[in-house]
Protein backbone atom coordinates (compact mmCIF):
# COMPACT_ATOMS: atom_id res chain seq x y z
CA UNK A 1 0.00 0.00 0.00
CA UNK A 2 1.43 3.35 -1.07
CA UNK A 3 0.01 6.10 1.10
CA UNK A 4 -0.29 9.65 -0.14
CA UNK A 5 -2.02 12.97 0.48
CA UNK A 6 -3.43 15.22 -2.20
CA UNK A 7 -4.54 18.82 -2.42
CA UNK A 8 -5.30 21.33 -5.17
CA UNK A 9 -4.23 24.96 -5.42
CA UNK A 10 -6.67 27.70 -6.37
CA UNK A 11 -5.05 27.87 -9.82
CA UNK A 12 -5.94 24.23 -10.44
CA UNK A 13 -2.57 22.57 -9.85
CA UNK A 14 -3.15 19.10 -8.40
CA UNK A 15 -0.52 18.01 -5.90
CA UNK A 16 0.22 14.58 -4.45
CA UNK A 17 2.62 13.95 -1.58
CA UNK A 18 4.07 10.56 -0.74
CA UNK A 19 6.29 10.23 2.33
CA UNK A 20 9.11 7.69 2.08
CA UNK A 21 11.52 7.99 4.99
CA UNK A 22 13.78 5.23 3.66
CA UNK A 23 15.56 7.47 1.19
CA UNK A 24 17.62 10.66 1.49
CA UNK A 25 16.38 11.69 -1.96
CA UNK A 26 13.26 13.48 -3.05
CA UNK A 27 11.63 12.92 -6.40
CA UNK A 28 9.57 15.63 -8.06
CA UNK A 29 7.43 14.68 -11.04
CA UNK A 30 5.28 17.03 -13.11
CA UNK A 31 3.01 15.52 -15.69
CA UNK A 32 1.38 17.80 -18.25
CA UNK A 33 -1.83 16.60 -19.83
CA UNK A 34 -0.60 17.15 -23.38
CA UNK A 35 0.84 14.75 -25.91
CA UNK A 36 1.11 14.17 -29.62
CA UNK A 37 -2.68 13.62 -29.88
CA UNK A 38 -3.21 17.30 -29.03
CA UNK A 39 -1.24 18.65 -31.97
CA UNK A 40 -2.42 20.34 -35.14
CA UNK A 41 -2.15 17.78 -37.99
CA UNK A 42 -0.16 20.38 -39.92
CA UNK A 43 2.15 21.16 -37.00
CA UNK A 44 3.02 17.82 -35.43
CA UNK A 45 5.92 17.15 -33.07
CA UNK A 46 5.22 20.17 -30.86
CA UNK A 47 4.76 18.24 -27.59
CA UNK A 48 8.08 16.51 -28.15
CA UNK A 49 9.71 19.83 -29.08
CA UNK A 50 8.63 21.17 -25.69
CA UNK A 51 10.29 18.24 -23.99
CA UNK A 52 13.47 19.95 -25.21
CA UNK A 53 12.47 23.62 -24.97
CA UNK A 54 11.59 23.31 -21.29
CA UNK A 55 15.30 22.87 -20.56
CA UNK A 56 16.29 25.96 -22.56
CA UNK A 57 15.89 28.44 -19.73
CA UNK A 58 13.05 30.29 -18.03
CA UNK A 59 12.31 33.82 -16.82
CA UNK A 60 14.72 33.80 -13.86
CA UNK A 61 16.89 30.75 -14.62
CA UNK A 62 19.00 30.96 -17.82
CA UNK A 63 20.10 27.32 -17.67
CA UNK A 64 17.89 24.70 -16.03
CA UNK A 65 20.52 22.00 -15.54
CA UNK A 66 23.32 23.97 -13.87
CA UNK A 67 21.65 24.93 -10.56
CA UNK A 68 20.15 21.45 -10.24
CA UNK A 69 23.50 19.76 -10.76
CA UNK A 70 25.15 22.09 -8.24
CA UNK A 71 22.83 20.74 -5.51
CA UNK A 72 23.34 17.10 -6.49
CA UNK A 73 20.24 16.66 -8.59
CA UNK A 74 19.50 15.11 -11.96
CA UNK A 75 16.53 15.23 -14.29
CA UNK A 76 14.96 14.10 -17.52
CA UNK A 77 11.68 14.05 -19.42
CA UNK A 78 9.68 12.05 -21.94
CA UNK A 79 6.72 12.54 -24.23
CA UNK A 80 4.22 10.11 -25.70
CA UNK A 81 0.86 10.20 -27.46
CA UNK A 82 -0.97 11.33 -24.33
CA UNK A 83 1.35 13.09 -21.88
CA UNK A 84 4.55 15.02 -21.36
CA UNK A 85 6.39 14.12 -18.16
CA UNK A 86 9.23 15.98 -16.43
CA UNK A 87 11.03 14.55 -13.42
CA UNK A 88 13.99 15.15 -11.17
CA UNK A 89 15.62 13.79 -8.04
CA UNK A 90 17.78 15.63 -5.55
CA UNK A 91 18.84 15.45 -1.88
CA UNK A 92 16.03 16.23 0.51
CA UNK A 93 17.97 19.18 1.97
CA UNK A 94 17.74 20.94 -1.41
CA UNK A 95 14.07 20.35 -2.00
CA UNK A 96 13.23 24.02 -2.52
CA UNK A 97 15.57 24.16 -5.52
CA UNK A 98 13.22 21.76 -7.28
CA UNK A 99 10.23 24.02 -6.59
CA UNK A 100 12.19 27.04 -7.82
CA UNK A 101 13.21 25.34 -11.07
CA UNK A 102 9.92 23.71 -11.97
CA UNK A 103 7.71 26.64 -11.03
CA UNK A 104 9.80 29.11 -13.04
CA UNK A 105 9.45 27.27 -16.32
CA UNK A 106 5.73 26.80 -15.73
CA UNK A 107 5.51 30.53 -14.88
CA UNK A 108 7.33 31.90 -17.91
CA UNK A 109 9.49 29.91 -20.28
CA UNK A 110 12.25 31.97 -21.92
CA UNK A 111 11.60 31.81 -25.65
CA UNK A 112 14.91 33.10 -26.94
CA UNK A 113 15.60 32.77 -30.65
CA UNK A 114 18.88 31.02 -29.83
CA UNK A 115 17.24 28.35 -27.66
CA UNK A 116 14.43 27.86 -30.17
CA UNK A 117 16.88 27.41 -33.06
CA UNK A 118 19.09 25.02 -31.09
CA UNK A 119 16.26 22.80 -29.86
CA UNK A 120 14.52 22.83 -33.23
CA UNK A 121 17.74 21.61 -34.85
CA UNK A 122 18.16 18.92 -32.18
CA UNK A 123 14.64 17.59 -32.77
CA UNK A 124 14.97 17.60 -36.56
CA UNK A 125 18.28 15.77 -36.33
CA UNK A 126 16.71 13.24 -33.94
CA UNK A 127 13.94 12.72 -36.50
CA UNK A 128 16.44 12.02 -39.27
CA UNK A 129 18.74 9.80 -37.24
CA UNK A 130 16.14 7.65 -35.48
CA UNK A 131 13.29 7.51 -37.99
CA UNK A 132 14.67 8.15 -41.47
CA UNK A 133 18.28 6.95 -41.49
CA UNK A 134 18.09 3.92 -39.20
CA UNK A 135 17.18 0.38 -40.32
CA UNK A 136 13.45 -0.22 -39.72
CA UNK A 137 13.25 3.31 -38.23
CA UNK A 138 10.33 4.36 -40.41
CA UNK A 139 8.22 1.25 -39.74
CA UNK A 140 5.92 2.95 -37.25
CA UNK A 141 5.84 6.11 -39.33
CA UNK A 142 4.15 3.85 -41.90
CA UNK A 143 2.09 1.72 -39.52
CA UNK A 144 0.36 4.57 -37.71
CA UNK A 145 -1.46 6.06 -40.74
CA UNK A 146 -2.17 2.52 -41.94
CA UNK A 147 -4.03 1.69 -38.72
CA UNK A 148 -5.56 5.08 -37.83
CA UNK A 149 -7.63 6.95 -40.42
CA UNK A 150 -8.87 9.88 -38.31
CA UNK A 151 -7.53 9.72 -34.76
CA UNK A 152 -4.33 11.73 -34.09
CA UNK A 153 -2.53 8.57 -32.99
CA UNK A 154 -1.88 8.33 -36.74
CA UNK A 155 1.34 10.31 -36.22
CA UNK A 156 4.31 9.58 -34.00
CA UNK A 157 5.48 11.69 -31.08
CA UNK A 158 8.37 12.88 -33.20
CA UNK A 159 5.80 14.18 -35.72
CA UNK A 160 4.69 13.42 -39.27
CA UNK A 161 7.45 15.23 -41.08
CA UNK A 162 10.57 17.20 -40.03
CA UNK A 163 9.23 20.22 -41.93
CA UNK A 164 6.52 20.73 -39.29
CA UNK A 165 9.20 21.64 -36.74
CA UNK A 166 11.58 23.23 -39.24
CA UNK A 167 8.85 25.67 -40.35
CA UNK A 168 7.30 26.28 -36.92
CA UNK A 169 7.16 29.94 -35.97
CA UNK A 170 7.89 31.43 -32.57
CA UNK A 171 4.26 32.58 -32.33
CA UNK A 172 2.98 29.03 -32.89
CA UNK A 173 5.30 27.62 -30.24
CA UNK A 174 4.35 30.30 -27.70
CA UNK A 175 0.66 29.63 -28.33
CA UNK A 176 1.16 25.89 -27.69
CA UNK A 177 2.97 26.65 -24.42
CA UNK A 178 0.31 29.14 -23.32
CA UNK A 179 -2.47 26.61 -23.96
CA UNK A 180 -1.04 23.50 -22.35
CA UNK A 181 1.72 24.26 -19.82
CA UNK A 182 -0.46 25.67 -17.07
CA UNK A 183 -1.21 24.70 -13.46
CA UNK A 184 -4.71 23.51 -14.34
CA UNK A 185 -3.26 21.13 -16.93
CA UNK A 186 -0.58 19.65 -14.67
CA UNK A 187 -0.17 17.26 -11.75
CA UNK A 188 2.75 17.69 -9.34
CA UNK A 189 3.98 14.77 -7.23
CA UNK A 190 6.60 15.09 -4.51
CA UNK A 191 7.83 11.80 -3.05
CA UNK A 192 10.56 11.12 -0.51
CA UNK A 193 11.40 12.04 3.05
CA UNK A 194 8.97 14.93 3.08
CA UNK A 195 5.70 15.73 4.80
CA UNK A 196 2.55 17.24 3.40
CA UNK A 197 2.79 20.43 5.47
CA UNK A 198 6.18 21.47 4.11
CA UNK A 199 5.29 20.46 0.56
CA UNK A 200 2.06 22.45 0.75
CA UNK A 201 3.91 25.54 2.01
CA UNK A 202 6.48 25.31 -0.78
CA UNK A 203 3.86 24.62 -3.43
CA UNK A 204 1.81 27.65 -2.45
CA UNK A 205 4.96 29.80 -2.32
CA UNK A 206 6.33 28.82 -5.73
CA UNK A 207 3.37 27.64 -7.81
CA UNK A 208 0.55 29.61 -6.18
CA UNK A 209 1.20 32.91 -8.03
CA UNK A 210 1.11 31.26 -11.48
CA UNK A 211 -2.02 32.03 -13.44
CA UNK A 212 -4.48 29.16 -13.89
CA UNK A 213 -4.59 29.11 -17.67
CA UNK A 214 -7.14 27.63 -20.00
CA UNK A 215 -9.07 24.46 -19.18
CA UNK A 216 -8.58 21.92 -21.96
CA UNK A 217 -11.65 20.27 -23.49
CA UNK A 218 -10.69 17.58 -25.97
CA UNK A 219 -12.93 16.68 -28.85
CA UNK A 220 -10.75 14.26 -30.75
CA UNK A 221 -12.14 12.27 -33.67
CA UNK A 222 -13.10 8.70 -32.78
CA UNK A 223 -11.48 6.08 -34.94
CA UNK A 224 -14.20 4.14 -36.82
CA UNK A 225 -14.33 0.37 -36.36
CA UNK A 226 -12.04 -1.40 -38.81
CA UNK A 227 -13.87 -4.18 -40.65
CA UNK A 228 -11.49 -5.07 -43.47
CA UNK A 229 -7.88 -6.15 -43.36
CA UNK A 230 -5.33 -3.59 -44.53
CA UNK A 231 -1.83 -4.28 -45.75
CA UNK A 232 1.12 -2.51 -47.25
CA UNK A 233 4.47 -3.72 -48.56
CA UNK A 234 7.60 -1.58 -48.53
CA UNK A 235 11.13 -2.40 -49.65
CA UNK A 236 14.11 -1.11 -47.74
CA UNK A 237 17.85 -1.69 -47.52
CA UNK A 238 17.70 -3.76 -44.33
CA UNK A 239 19.29 -7.13 -43.41
CA UNK A 240 16.15 -9.30 -43.16
CA UNK A 241 12.40 -9.21 -43.78
CA UNK A 242 10.20 -8.03 -40.97
CA UNK A 243 6.46 -8.10 -40.36
CA UNK A 244 4.32 -5.70 -38.31
CA UNK A 245 0.72 -6.53 -37.44
CA UNK A 246 -1.61 -4.28 -35.41
CA UNK A 247 -5.18 -4.78 -34.18
CA UNK A 248 -7.36 -2.07 -32.67
CA UNK A 249 -8.07 -2.61 -28.96
CA UNK A 250 -9.66 -0.74 -26.07
CA UNK A 251 -8.29 2.30 -24.28
CA UNK A 252 -6.35 2.43 -21.02
CA UNK A 253 -9.42 3.18 -18.90
CA UNK A 254 -11.57 0.32 -20.18
CA UNK A 255 -11.98 -2.78 -18.02
CA UNK A 256 -11.03 -4.99 -21.00
CA UNK A 257 -7.56 -3.43 -20.94
CA UNK A 258 -6.30 -5.86 -18.29
CA UNK A 259 -7.33 -9.03 -20.14
CA UNK A 260 -5.86 -7.65 -23.37
CA UNK A 261 -2.59 -6.85 -21.66
CA UNK A 262 -2.39 -10.39 -20.29
CA UNK A 263 -2.97 -11.82 -23.78
CA UNK A 264 0.19 -10.05 -24.94
CA UNK A 265 2.05 -11.56 -21.99
CA UNK A 266 0.78 -15.07 -22.71
CA UNK A 267 2.01 -14.73 -26.27
CA UNK A 268 5.25 -12.95 -25.58
CA UNK A 269 6.35 -12.79 -21.95
CA UNK A 270 10.00 -13.58 -22.42
CA UNK A 271 11.23 -16.90 -23.74
CA UNK A 272 8.36 -18.83 -22.15
CA UNK A 273 5.80 -16.95 -24.27
CA UNK A 274 3.85 -18.96 -26.80
CA UNK A 275 5.17 -17.11 -29.85
CA UNK A 276 8.79 -17.60 -28.85
CA UNK A 277 8.34 -21.25 -27.93
CA UNK A 278 6.39 -22.22 -31.07
CA UNK A 279 7.68 -19.96 -33.83
CA UNK A 280 11.18 -18.96 -32.75
CA UNK A 281 12.48 -21.97 -30.83
CA UNK A 282 10.53 -24.92 -32.29
CA UNK A 283 9.69 -23.97 -35.89
CA UNK A 284 12.56 -21.48 -36.28
CA UNK A 285 10.53 -19.18 -38.53
CA UNK A 286 11.55 -15.98 -36.76
CA UNK A 287 14.75 -14.72 -35.21
CA UNK A 288 12.74 -12.35 -33.06
CA UNK A 289 9.00 -12.15 -32.37
CA UNK A 290 7.12 -9.99 -29.87
CA UNK A 291 3.60 -9.08 -28.86
CA UNK A 292 2.73 -5.94 -26.93
CA UNK A 293 0.08 -3.30 -26.45
CA UNK A 294 0.54 0.42 -26.92
CA UNK A 295 -1.31 1.24 -23.67
CA UNK A 296 -2.72 4.52 -24.95
CA UNK A 297 -5.45 6.39 -23.07
CA UNK A 298 -7.71 6.43 -26.13
CA UNK A 299 -8.34 3.21 -28.05
CA UNK A 300 -4.90 1.73 -28.72
CA UNK A 301 -3.25 -1.11 -30.58
CA UNK A 302 -2.35 -4.75 -29.94
CA UNK A 303 0.84 -5.37 -31.88
CA UNK A 304 2.89 -8.33 -33.07
CA UNK A 305 6.24 -7.69 -34.74
CA UNK A 306 8.77 -10.20 -35.97
CA UNK A 307 11.96 -10.57 -37.97
CA UNK A 308 11.82 -13.52 -40.34
CA UNK A 309 14.58 -16.09 -40.68
CA UNK A 310 16.34 -16.11 -44.04
CA UNK A 311 14.33 -18.05 -46.63
CA UNK A 312 11.02 -17.87 -44.72
CA UNK A 313 8.24 -16.26 -46.75
CA UNK A 314 5.81 -13.69 -45.40
CA UNK A 315 2.97 -16.11 -46.15
CA UNK A 316 4.53 -18.90 -44.08
CA UNK A 317 5.33 -16.55 -41.21
CA UNK A 318 1.87 -15.01 -41.17
CA UNK A 319 0.14 -18.39 -41.31
CA UNK A 320 2.14 -19.53 -38.30
CA UNK A 321 1.20 -16.40 -36.32
CA UNK A 322 -2.43 -16.89 -37.26
CA UNK A 323 -2.34 -20.48 -35.98
CA UNK A 324 -1.23 -19.27 -32.54
CA UNK A 325 -3.89 -16.56 -32.53
CA UNK A 326 -6.56 -19.12 -33.42
CA UNK A 327 -5.68 -21.01 -30.24
CA UNK A 328 -6.12 -17.80 -28.24
CA UNK A 329 -9.50 -17.17 -29.87
CA UNK A 330 -10.93 -20.68 -29.40
CA UNK A 331 -9.25 -22.28 -26.38
CA UNK A 332 -9.21 -21.08 -22.81
CA UNK A 333 -5.75 -20.67 -21.37
CA UNK A 334 -4.93 -23.15 -18.60
CA UNK A 335 -4.98 -21.76 -15.08
CA UNK A 336 -1.28 -22.52 -14.55
CA UNK A 337 -0.30 -20.42 -17.57
CA UNK A 338 -2.67 -17.62 -16.58
CA UNK A 339 -1.36 -17.64 -13.02
CA UNK A 340 2.20 -17.46 -14.33
CA UNK A 341 1.58 -14.28 -16.33
CA UNK A 342 -0.40 -12.75 -13.47
CA UNK A 343 2.49 -13.43 -11.10
CA UNK A 344 4.88 -11.91 -13.61
CA UNK A 345 2.69 -8.84 -13.86
CA UNK A 346 2.55 -8.52 -10.07
CA UNK A 347 6.33 -8.73 -9.79
CA UNK A 348 6.72 -6.08 -12.50
CA UNK A 349 4.35 -3.78 -10.63
CA UNK A 350 6.22 -4.36 -7.36
CA UNK A 351 9.63 -3.76 -8.96
CA UNK A 352 8.20 -0.69 -10.68
CA UNK A 353 7.43 0.85 -7.32
CA UNK A 354 10.72 0.26 -5.56
CA UNK A 355 12.39 3.59 -6.37
CA UNK A 356 10.91 6.77 -5.02
CA UNK A 357 11.01 8.28 -8.52
CA UNK A 358 9.01 5.37 -9.95
CA UNK A 359 6.37 5.86 -7.28
CA UNK A 360 6.20 9.57 -8.07
CA UNK A 361 5.77 8.88 -11.79
CA UNK A 362 3.10 6.23 -11.24
CA UNK A 363 1.13 8.38 -8.82
CA UNK A 364 1.15 11.24 -11.33
CA UNK A 365 0.04 9.04 -14.22
CA UNK A 366 -2.74 7.29 -12.31
CA UNK A 367 -4.02 10.65 -11.02
CA UNK A 368 -4.13 11.84 -14.61
CA UNK A 369 -6.15 8.73 -15.45
CA UNK A 370 -8.57 9.72 -12.73
CA UNK A 371 -7.38 8.38 -9.38
CA UNK A 372 -3.86 8.05 -7.99
CA UNK A 373 -5.10 5.22 -5.77
CA UNK A 374 -5.10 2.98 -8.85
CA UNK A 375 -1.45 2.43 -7.89
CA UNK A 376 -2.76 0.30 -5.01
CA UNK A 377 -5.43 -1.51 -7.04
CA UNK A 378 -3.67 -2.32 -10.27
CA UNK A 379 -2.59 -5.85 -9.24
CA UNK A 380 -6.17 -6.69 -8.20
CA UNK A 381 -7.46 -5.65 -11.61
CA UNK A 382 -5.12 -8.14 -13.27
CA UNK A 383 -5.83 -10.84 -10.67
CA UNK A 384 -9.58 -10.76 -11.44
CA UNK A 385 -9.12 -11.56 -15.13
CA UNK A 386 -10.48 -15.03 -15.97
CA UNK A 387 -9.51 -17.52 -18.66
CA UNK A 388 -12.90 -16.97 -20.28
CA UNK A 389 -12.29 -13.21 -20.50
CA UNK A 390 -8.91 -13.86 -22.12
CA UNK A 391 -10.52 -16.00 -24.80
CA UNK A 392 -13.39 -13.56 -25.33
CA UNK A 393 -11.05 -10.61 -25.76
CA UNK A 394 -8.80 -12.53 -28.14
CA UNK A 395 -11.85 -13.52 -30.21
CA UNK A 396 -13.08 -9.92 -30.25
CA UNK A 397 -9.82 -8.19 -31.09
CA UNK A 398 -7.52 -10.55 -32.94
CA UNK A 399 -9.64 -10.94 -36.06
CA UNK A 400 -8.37 -10.62 -39.64
CA UNK A 401 -10.72 -7.74 -40.46
CA UNK A 402 -9.41 -5.70 -37.54
CA UNK A 403 -5.78 -6.14 -38.55
CA UNK A 404 -3.35 -3.92 -40.44
CA UNK A 405 -0.15 -5.54 -41.69
CA UNK A 406 3.10 -4.05 -42.91
CA UNK A 407 5.41 -6.31 -44.89
CA UNK A 408 8.85 -4.73 -44.54
CA UNK A 409 10.85 -6.41 -47.28
CA UNK A 410 14.63 -6.46 -47.41
CA UNK A 411 16.30 -5.65 -50.75
Topology:
Elements: E1 5-8, E2 14-19, E3 25-32, H1 46-53, H2 65-70, E4 74-79, E5 84-91, H3 95-107, H4 113-132, H5 139-147, H6 162-166, H7 170-180, E6 186-192, H8 196-207, E7 230-236, E8 242-248, H9 256-268, H10 274-282, E9 286-293, E10 301-308, H11 314-330, H12 335-351, H13 356-369, H14 378-383, H15 387-397, E11 403-410
Parallel strand pairs: 2-6, 7-11
Antiparallel strand pairs: 1-2, 3-5, 3-6, 4-5, 8-10, 8-11, 9-10
Helix pairs in contact: 1-4, 3-8, 9-15, 10-11, 11-15
Report on this model:
- The chain is an alpha+beta fold.
- 42% of the residues lie in helices and 19% in strands.
- The protein has 15 helices and 11 strands.
- It has helices spanning 46-53, 65-70, 95-107, 113-132, 139-147, 162-166, 170-180, 196-207, 256-268, 274-282, 314-330, 335-351, 356-369, 378-383, 387-397, and strands spanning 5-8, 14-19, 25-32, 74-79, 84-91, 186-192, 230-236, 242-248, 286-293, 301-308, 403-410.
- It has a 6-stranded mixed β-sheet, sandwiched between helices. It has a 5-stranded mixed β-sheet with strand order 7-11-8-10-9, with helices on both faces.
- Helix 1 (46-53) crosses helix 4, helix 9 (256-268) crosses helix 15 (387-397) and helix 10 (274-282) packs antiparallel against helix 11 (314-330).
- The protein is globular.
Question: Features of this protein?
Answer:
single chain; 411 residues; alpha+beta; six-stranded mixed sheet; five-stranded mixed sheet; 15 helices; 11 strands; 42% helix; globular
